[in-house]
Structures are given as structure tokens and as C-alpha cells.
């Protein structure tokens, strides 16, 4: 094994190829985190709220990307999903999910 694998050009090529392949998802998650942090700052939240809301919004966005693919929507819709999740926040998205799940259970 080489002493410094980070110096291997093949490693960097693989990393760049992975980033290019997953660019829409990463951009959507980053947008979601940024909007969520700015929304909490604007609302006067604490630093802890900013970090947690940003992380949760980013993770929710990453979990929505496969749903977009399943629905047959283009990858570019991931950016819209990220912006919407960041703007609405985790609590609002969870409320929508709870209502949809309750409708499915009721009938």
C-alpha cells in the first residue's frame, strides 16, 4: 500500500467523478442547510437551533431525492425540494407527513 494514498491521481479522479455524479443531491442538501440556517437566524433562534435545523433539513432533503426519482421527476427537481424543505423547516414537513400518513391509515 502506498504511503500517501491522497497523492494518487486515481483517488482524486474517483472522488471528483463521485462528486459530479451526485452533484444535484449535494447541491440540494447544501441549499436546504443554508436556507434553514438563515431562516433560524432571521427568526432569532440560537446557534444550537441553527445547527440542528440545518442538519435535519439537509438529511430530509437527501432522503427526498430517491422519492423524486421514484415519481419519475428529473434530478433538477432536487434543488426545488431542498429549497422547499429549508424554507418550511423540519417541523412543518413532519406535520405534512403526519397528515398524509393519517389519511392513508383512515382510508
From TrEMBL:
InterPro entries: Phage_lambda_GpS_holin
Keywords: Membrane, Transmembrane, Transmembrane helix
Source superkingdom: Bacteria
Segments passing through the bilayer: 12-38, 50-67
Protein name: Phage holin, lambda family
Organism: Pseudomonas protegens
Organism placement in taxonomy: Bacteria, Pseudomonadati, Pseudomonadota, Gammaproteobacteria, Pseudomonadales
Amino acid at each position: 500500500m502506498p504511503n500517501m494514498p491522497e497523492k494518487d491521481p486515481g483517488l482524486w479522479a474517483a472522488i471528483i467523478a463521485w462528486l459530479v455524479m451526485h452533484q444535484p443531491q449535494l447541491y440540494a442538501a447544501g441549499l436546504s442547510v443554508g436556507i434553514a440556517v438563515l431562516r433560524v437566524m432571521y427568526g432569532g433562534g440560537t446557534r444550537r437551533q441553527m445547527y440542528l435545523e440545518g442538519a435535519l433539513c439537509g438529511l430530509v432533503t437527501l432522503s427526498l431525492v430517491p422519492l423524486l426519482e421514484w415519481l419519475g421527476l428529473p434530478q433538477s427537481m432536487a434543488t426545488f425540494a431542498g429549497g422547499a424543505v429549508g424554507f418550511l423547516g423540519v417541523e412543518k414537513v413532519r406535520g405534512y407527513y403526519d397528515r398524509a400518513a393519517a389519511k392513508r391509515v383512515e382510508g
